[in-house]
Amino acid sequence: MRLYDKLLQAVQSKDENTQNSLCDKIRSGLQTATIKCDPEVTHAVLTAAKDEDLTVLRFLLTRLGADCLSVRNPENDTIVHIAARLQGVLTGPAALELMVEHLGIDCLRLEGCKSRKALHCAAWNRNSPAALFWLLDRLEQRDFIDDADDENFTALQYVFAIQDTRTLQVLAERDNGRYLRVKGEANKTAFHMVAMNEDNSEALMWLIDTQENPDDFLMPDANGDTPVHLAFWKQDASAVKALVDKLGFDCLSLQGENGRTAVHYATLNERNHGPLLWLLENQQSDMFCNADGNGDTAIHLAFWKQCGKTINELVSSLGIDCLKQRGERGRTAAHYAALNERSSSALLWIIETQDQSILLTPDAQGDCAFHQAFWKQDAHVAIALIEKLGRGCLKLPGGKYKRTAAHYAALNERSASALLYLIENHESHLFHAVDAEETTPLHWAFRNQTAEVVARLVSKAGWGRLRSQIDNKQTAAHFAALNERSPSAFYWLLDTLEPEIFLTSIERTSTAMHYAFKVQTVDTVQRLVGILGTDCLALKGFKGRTAVHYAALNERSPSAILWLIDNLDMHAFTVPDNNGDTPVHFAFLKQNDKVAELLLEKLGLECLSLPGGKYRRTIAHYAADNERSPAALLWLVANHDPSLFLCRDTDEATALHIALLKQDVSTVAKLVNKVGNAALTLRGYRNRTCAHYAARNERSEGMLAYLFDNVKDSAAILEVLKSTDDDGRTCLHVCTLNRAHGVPMFERIYPLFGKSDKFDALKMVDKDGRNPLFIACLAKNFNFFHARYIDLDEHQCIDKDGNTLLHALFLVLDPRVRFSFSVGQLADVAEQLIKAGVDFTSENKAMRNCLLASELDENNLKSILKRISQPELKKAFSKLQRNSNGLHAIHVFCSRYSIMNLQTPLCQLCDLSLPQLLSIGVNEGPMKGATSLHFACEAGHKENISYLLSQGLKLEDYTTSNQTCVDYACQSGKLPTLCEVAVSSGVDLSEILRLVDPTRRALPLPDRQSARNLLNLFSDLSLRTNIERNHSSRRMVDTAGNQASPSEAPEVLILYRALELDSSQMLRSLIVAGFAAEDMRDQVINYILMRKEDESEAQQRRSFKDLEKFRMLSEDFVEHLTLIECAIFFEKPKLLSDLMLLPQFDIIPETLRLLIHLRPKVELMRNEQLKRVRDKALNVVVNVLENLCVNAHATERRLLFKYLTANFTDEKNVLGPKFPGPVPMIADDDAEETDSDDDELEAEGKAIRKHKRHSRQAKRLEERNKNENRNFMSVMDMVEMLDCDDLYATECISQLVDRQWRKPPPLPWDQGVQVQCNVLNKRSKVSIQQRFGIYMTFYLVFLAYFAWYVTDFKWNLEHPAADIILLAYALSLTLQEVDNILNKSAIMDVYIRHKRLRVPLYFTDLFNYFDISGFSLMWAGVVLKLLGRVVDASLYRSCQVVLSTSFLLLGFRFVALLSYFRVTGPKICILKSLIFKDLLPFVLIMFVLIYSFGVFFFNLLFPAFADARDEQSLTLIFTLPVSLMFGLFENTLFTSCNSSKEATGLGCADLGGNNAYNGILIFFYLLIVNLVMWNLLIALFTYTVSQMATKANGLWRKNQFELLQEFSEISPIPPPLSFPYYAWKLLRRCPCFREVPRLPTEEEAEKQQQSVWWQNQSKFANYPAAYRRFLTYQAEQLRQCRAQLRRSVEGHRGDADALKAHMENEIAENGEEVCRDLREHINSLETELKGQLTRLESDASFGVERLETEIYEQRQKLANLELQMKHLLLLLGGKPKEIPAVSKPDIVRVQPEAPRPVTHTHVQPEAQQQQREQDQRSSFPSPEVTLPAPETSVDSSYAQPTVLPKDQDALHVHFVEPAATSSVQDKQQNHVDSPAPPATSSLKQRSSIRVKPELSSPDQSDGLHAEHISLLKWEKTRAHYHDMSTASVGRQSSQRGSSSSGAATSRWRGQDDKAREESADSRCSIL
């Protein structure tokens, strides 16, 4: 017997003992409620609450009192809630009365399930409304109307949604119907709730019958839905018919949520299809074709929700064409039928009746209805589809991930029958198909199906896929572990596969074991650990988390973590992941109190302070953040110290703050009681108080009120809670962020802030100037706008950024947080704000109006655009299309949203077609001309870029500031994204890169006007004459096609003229005009060749002196000739300086070719201009290489080295890129041969000499062209050919060489050359550096052996074995040297004293001479030793000397090897320079001095020299001065002879000579030699060392390159064993052993050449991907530095050269800055002057209008005077004259003159200056006033001002001359009707007036005088304003022009002003 039955029996029997014992048992069960109530006690108490016999309930309430409220059911309801929901008519009020009696009235406000109170539960009571009405009598109205549960429904709304009609009638009568219109959740009224009551249509019929106001049924809720919409969604046909009869059929067109009408909702009515059928009978078909906000029509929704019968009737009524319409994501009706899970009959109807094409039509993501049917339908549908479409359809990929039907069948969780059908009836390969993620149907089956299905699938598909990994390294085990639906598939795998599969790691994620602990139950994980062992639990996965972490995160089943707690040690729960979180932290965040208690028992209290996560939070923080269950937090509160809850994380937040944000009131109350009220003063993140956190609590409405009520007695704490945070916001501001309870929170606490009413509280602003209403708009909390105290007129707000409340509606508070809201409600609020006076066109400080500032979600924005595109809103919101900077909405949205999704509503809003919308440009401001594509590229929006390119927008579209879309992408760092999308859209990469690095950035270009002027300047009459002659001479050829020859295009002719004149200005002007010089190369060359027929010989020689030689080049060379080479050929240095910067992709090889061509011209011809060009070209190539290398990362540097070495490969393994080598031009030989030719032909005439020279040159060039082909070379080949020290010194080449040292041979740039002899026929694994080390070691051994050999020569004579070793060394080293000679046999040009020598490359190195000499002497010594053994032993001494000399020379070879090292290499370079540049010249000078002094001293000392003249005496000539020089004075002292005859040089010297010698001559000699010469040598060495200190590193790098080349060919086997290798290599060089390949024919060679991928430079599509990446990187780098490429290189130069280069660069940089600042200043002055001119013209316009008004008034006065005269004449008896009617003249609007472009022209000739002055005069004409001509009688007629047409100058006002008529009236009438004459009269004519001296009548005289005086005043005033405007313009033009032009303009202006004043004065005097 259960406890309740025992209790009932005891109460009924009145057994006191039993009652007491049972009460004690219940009370003891209640005392353990902190953990969990006793189930028996819970059952007993709750059963008593719902039992109609209230005996037990009364007993429990009497004995236990309030303790009964601690008992709650699993849904968190108390006895109060249960009684209110379940009691009947009589017992319900009685039970509630009983509870109120014992527990108090507050028990009725306790929150239960979903925060519902007793009143909510009573509203749910379908048994009886008695409890509801009883509660209404005892509670306040706000409890019924305002209190909402967690679903935001009030009790009132539940009543209308659940109760019957009778209850509703009583409730309506109870308050006179006021309850019917009270708004609740989402602004729903009783009419909405009744319409949603699908179980009681009578209630809706009752409202229809009783409510007279139809607007109640048309009021939209917050989502935009009216009761009409909801009725069609939930009611039957009778109800909707009655509703339409009441409201009319117009209600059906109303749009609700997401733009849906009643027809849409009728199709969504799954329960009753009566409303839909009724609509079909009564509505037209167009209602079913209207799309909602998603693009779905009612037809689509019907196929999604209705059955086949309804669909048949629908299609019968609308026609079969309705099936072709597309809805959301491009889906057709067939797609929706396939997705209809309710009924498959709709899809079967389509299969039976429609064509198969509708089933195979893809939507926007590529899915067909066929695929989606396998995803959502059963096997019978799959069978019908296969029968309809055939088996081939099963292989069709579909969707975004390219999945087949088998994939979709495996994904079908609803039914496995379709998959089983495929398994049983189709081939196994169907299940091997992989989708875009490399996932097979087998993987998805393990994720969604049962063990039975996967077992049958594996038996069908095979076991191979079970162990394979897909793209993200997941196996089938991972998918099975995530299968929450059926763990049987995972069990099956555990029993089938080896354990290692479940421990397979995934890159940056987890194993299958980790996934199992995250989602599976304890049974599954126990079984898994039993197989894998407990060691697997320590394995780390995603973010370093173990299986224990995942078990703690398992919300589905806490049993897994409980099992781990029982079986693992404590250390497993304290292991942190990568963020610092441990399993203990996750357990308190996700699990209940039982898990928390067991964990703390296991780990101890020390874990409470364990910090975790990136915010270093404690366990208390995580428990407070546990929204799922507060039990863990309550357990901590009950059992631990208060300090635990006051620990701060890194955001300064405590557990108390987080609890205030996440928990309910009861939980927080217990926590506050624990920590005390003083803790409420603690501040958290950004200095926020506890009140700020409580105000954000959306779980409990009373949280904030509880907080303030709890501290109302403490003023200090209260002040803290009311204070602001760092953002200047109080908790009142934060309330507006709480969309669930913000309004009631605000209303309850605002009095605490000292505000008299809520009206004033809403005026409080934060630090950003935002009031609570502004923040409510940001949070989309529209509940505040329904409050009665909101006054939008008074509560308008503009924050510090200039945003209004309308801006706030479109902005978001935090971009990372997206609030869901109703678009209709937002539109309603926006409409309220506009009506309240908020300026919807207002712009913030970023120049964005509310629409352009939108940060809303894309779908919400789309719905808003649709809403404001409606006719009633369109007129107002269409003004928001543009902002004041000229940006259109399409521009702003391109960077944030998908234009494809927004284009339709935008087109409707702007009244534009799609092409017009997409082509809109910015119409003003700095970005004028930018299109949508510019902004999409700037933001890197992939979808928009692709879409706009497909719509025809171009990347090369320029703005007015010459910025392309690519420029926008580069500036924002989005170039990689743009390249990726554009290339995938069909744009070739070459087009993009040409815009990344345009040629116009290379040079300082003139503006467009200056460029146009320059081209006109150079295009003189002679050029135009030549052009006309060329056109006329070829007219017969061009007549057929009516086209000019491409070589005769104007730009080609101008480029030819630039080449002819060597004009860089013309070239730059062409670039400004948009022409690429290299694109016109062929036309220019052809035109040069054609000029032979058209020009005279003198003109040819003057223009192109080498034209004849140019024509001698073969066609093959001309084909590859570049403009740079043409300029070299014709020696155009100015053009070369610019052309070298223009190549875009091949700037390195082009510049290297330029340097190769310039080298002979500079060295031989000594042309200083070409030398400067060479220096600039060298600077260019060095700067390019340095920039590319220094700024590169490792990957980019590898690409750079591949480019330099031509090591990119395509699919055919063709290496490249390679570039055409230098053209072998005859000009190279001219400098040498011209002098000799002239000497030989000096006797002959000029014509003969010229003819013979050209004939010989032509013959020589023809032979060269036959023998030489222009080979294609790599960049390194060109570097090697150029042989320039500065290039080897660059960091780029140096790093490349260092990299190649560490790699095995051959060198990359030599791989294209056929290897003549490869011993092993495969690549060696020994690197070049290793070969060098081995060789150097063995060479050192050789030197040691050789030294011993020549030293211990006697022993070697006795032991011949030593000779064998020496011979092996000699043979190996000699053969190596021979191989080196052959490898370096290429002929090089060496220039000495401006002479060219052609020598082999080998002989350009000094150390090679030592090698040859050393090896020659070694072999000579070997031969002498052999001869000594055979012939004469005395030769041994000679042999020893020769071998010692050989050793000496070979020692220098070791010095050369030491130059490899960085420490010794530069020093060896300095040593070489010292020896050859300083020491050798010094020795030569010393030799002359020594020899001179030696002869002088000898003859002075020994005048009587012996006749024998022995050698010993002659040596004194040299030994004497040398001994003196080195201080060996003992050899230089002689005794004096008695007689000069004895001074023979044998013992004594001449007395006089010896005295002179010992006296002054030795001093003089020592002064010159020892003091001067030695110090000179020291000074030379010092200077050279200082100069070479910086150069030596570069020279060393060149030596290192040469060593690299040498040792790349060396044998991997060291000497003395290497001679077989070299012998075999030399043998392979012999013609008899060389493989001679078959030469291809010309056609084959041409085809082969065309097939090379790097030959096609116009398209990059066929280039290797790596090469394309390099070109992109190169373009990005050159974009930054191209303009500075010609700057001097400072590194690796001497001190003076480096300083000079540095100063040049500084001057250039400062000059650029000055020019840039000057241009900016000029532009600002121009803008300022234009503004002043506009203001002056505006003032003038105002003055003119005022004067014309005055004229009109004077004419009126004149008319009045004439009327008075008429009356006077009548009185006097006279006949009055007809007076014309006075009409107001047309007001002439003076429009400001259009601004004229300011041109900056570098060349200003005098004629050009005069022409510009004339243009300035004509551009500022004076006002034109034409008065009646002298021939016409001047009477009362007057001239009428006429308005000029718009195309004429608005400053000119013409008065039309009246025609000569007989009467005044005729004249005036004729004048009014006559047209205005053209304004062509001159100033003199316009200002002349002649009047007849006699007037015809007094009235005419008065009228004429008054009118003309007014006209003259008006004219003088106009002249004054004109002078002011022209003076302003004059100042502007004087700044632009020269001083002479300014003076001329001033003289002209002064004369003009004087003439006008004299004319006006003369007219006044005449009048």
Overall description:
Among the domains are: 591-675, Serine Threonine Protein Phosphatase 5, Tetratricopeptide repeat (Alpha Horseshoe); 678-797, Serine Threonine Protein Phosphatase 5, Tetratricopeptide repeat; 809-1001, Alpha Horseshoe (Serine Threonine Protein Phosphatase 5, Tetratricopeptide repeat), CATH 1.25.40; 1008-1111, no CATH class; 1324-1456; 1459-1637, no CATH class; 1723-1966, no CATH class. Helices cover 57% and strands 1% of the residues. The protein is built from 96 helices and 10 strands. It has a two-stranded antiparallel sheet with strand order 1-2. The protein has a two-stranded antiparallel sheet with strand order 3-4. A hairpin with a 2-residue loop joins strand 5 (1387-1392) and strand 6 (1395-1400). It is elongated and about 170 Å long. The N and C termini lie far apart (132 Å).
Structural class designation: mainly alpha
User: Which regions contain 5 or more consecutive residues with pLDDT less than 50?
Assistant: 31-35, 1020-1044, 1226-1269, 1312-1322, 1775-1967
Distance between the termini: 132 Å
Give the strand order, joined by hyphens, for the main sheet: 1-2
Please state the average pLDDT score.
76
Q: Work out the helix count.
A: 96
Which range does the strand content fall in? under 5%
Q: What is the overall shape?
A: elongated
Question: Can you give the helix content as a percent range?
Answer: 55-70%
Q: Count every beta strand, where a strand is a DSSP E run of 2 or more residues.
A: 10
Largest sheet: 2 strands, antiparallel
Radius of gyration in whole Å, from Cα?
52 Å
InterPro entries: Ankyrin_rpt, Ankyrin_rpt-contain_sf, Multifunctional_ANK_Repeat
Pfam families: Ank_2 (PF12796)
